[in-house]
Write a structure and sequence with these properties.
By secondary structure, the protein is of the alpha+beta class. It folds into two domains: 3-231, Rossmann fold (3-Layer(aba) Sandwich), CATH 3.40.50; 236-345, Beta Barrel (OB fold (Dihydrolipoamide Acetyltransferase, E2P)). 25% of the residues lie in helices and 38% in strands. The protein has helices at residues 38-46, 94-104, 109-122, 138-151, 168-180, 192-198, 216-221, 226-231, 318-324, and strands at 3-11, 14-22, 27-31, 51-58, 61-65, 70-71, 79-83, 156-160, 184-188, 201-206, 209-214, 235-248, 253-268, 274-276, 286-298, 301-306, 312-316, 331-336, 342-345. It has a six-stranded mixed sheet, with helices on both faces. Helix 2 (94-104) packs across helix 3 and helix 2 (94-104) packs parallel to helix 4 (138-151). It is globular, with a radius of gyration of 24 Å.
């Protein structure tokens, strides 16, 4: 394993407790709501926050073990850390910023600049090599920061929302670049596309703990918290199953195709629900009347959020919104086939 971490650490009054490992060359994406502890975990890996209990091993090197009084400083760890704040040196040119790490590792000025120029070319900024950070846009500075981190040729690359300031086209290009970097990568992200494209494993953090882990497909198939379901664009409801009948906690009973007993999690795609202005007479086993809580246009589709008795969201076209007369506070009927429900033990 390139990373083994068993971390109990604190930042102020907030503490985290997390254990995970990552194979060499893999990418681990850490997701979770704001304040979940994602950055605290990455900073503990980087040595910026002391580990109070447990141990951390990076690329075969034991860098933290409080029981043995081991704490390797950040600059002696086989890592590079890039955050959304970049922290470029304002007095250095772009190429000198990127060459800084290689120079610190012992490369000659000429070799360090050659490597820096190669990485600036890879991120599409070779033409800006002579500029100062103050002359760059936010997205350009983000790419320079990524080039600086990658130019260090770290064994472990820690990325804290590193693609957040990039436009859609550039973000796609940089995703491909990150996938090709020969380092074990740990990536904090709020972008479900990044988890799908880059991640070999997904860690879901809430309240300083890892509440779910697995491949992106495994987590998407069985989201265990409402936040995770929202990130992966899946509806998640809770209830009590008795055979194929599930009494939701919100007062509605749904029919599934899977007999279960006891507390369950019910998931279904927002595209599986159809809306109508009158009670539908279809083969769908589940129909209910709901109030529209909110309408959210998103690109070429519209997210319709329904309130009780089954809080969920539904994707429709802008044309359907007009034809159905949907607006906040209006009422409509929802239909959902039993076969579209996935029911698992809670």
């Amino acid at each position: 394993m390139s990373i083994y971490a068993d971390i109990h650490a604190s930042a102020g009054d907030f503490s985290i407790r997390a254990t995970f490992d990552a194979p060499t060359g893999s990418c681990t994406a850490i997701v979770g709501p704001n304040g979940a502890g994602k950055t605290t975990l990455v900073h503990a890996l980087a040595g910026l926050i002391p580990v109070q209990q447990g141990s951390v091993m990076l690329a075969g090197q034991l860098v933290d073990d409080p029981a043995q009084r081991i704490h390797v400083p950040s600059d002696r760890r086989p890592i590079a850390l890039h955050s959304q704040h970049n922290l470029l040196f304002p007095h250095l040119s772009v190429v000198d910023n990127v060459a800084f790490g290689p120079r610190c590792s012992g490369l000659s000025t000429r070799s360090a600049h050659q490597r820096a120029e190669e990485w600036l070319h890879k991120v599409g900024l070779a033409h800006l090599a002579g500029l100062r950070p103050a002359e760059l846009s936010g997205g350009q500075a983000q790419r320079v920061g990524l080039a600086r981190a990658a130019a260090c040729q770290p064994k472990v690359l820690l990325l804290d929302e590193s693609l957040a300031s990039l436009d859609a086209e550039t973000r796609t290009d940089v995703r491909h670049l990150l996938a090709d970097i020969p380092a074990t990568r740990v990536l904090i992200t709020h972008d479900p596309v990044e988890t799908r494209v880059l991640a070999d494993q997904l860690l879901v953090m809430e309240d300083g703990r890892i509440v779910q882990s697995g491949t992106p497909d495994e987590v998407a198939a069985d989201p265990r918290t409402p936040w995770t379901a929202g990130l992966l664009d899946v509806n998640l409801l809770t209830g009590l199953a008795n055979g194929t009948r599930v009494a939701l906690d919100y007062g509605l009973t749904l029919t599934s195709a899977t007999p279960m007993t006891g507390p369950v999690l019910v998931t279904f795609s927002p595209a599986a629900v159809t809306l109508s202005t009158a009670e539908p007479h279809t083969s769908a086993r589940n129909t209910w009347e709901a109030e529209v809580a909110r309408i959210q246009p998103e690109g070429d589709r519209v997210r319709v959020l329904l309130g009780s008795p089954a809080p969920c969201h539904v994707w429709v076209t802008p044309q359907a919104v007009g034809e159905l007369g949907l607006s906040a506070g209006s009422r409509c009927w929802a239909a959902l086939k039993a076969t579209e429900l996935t029911v698992r033990d809670a």
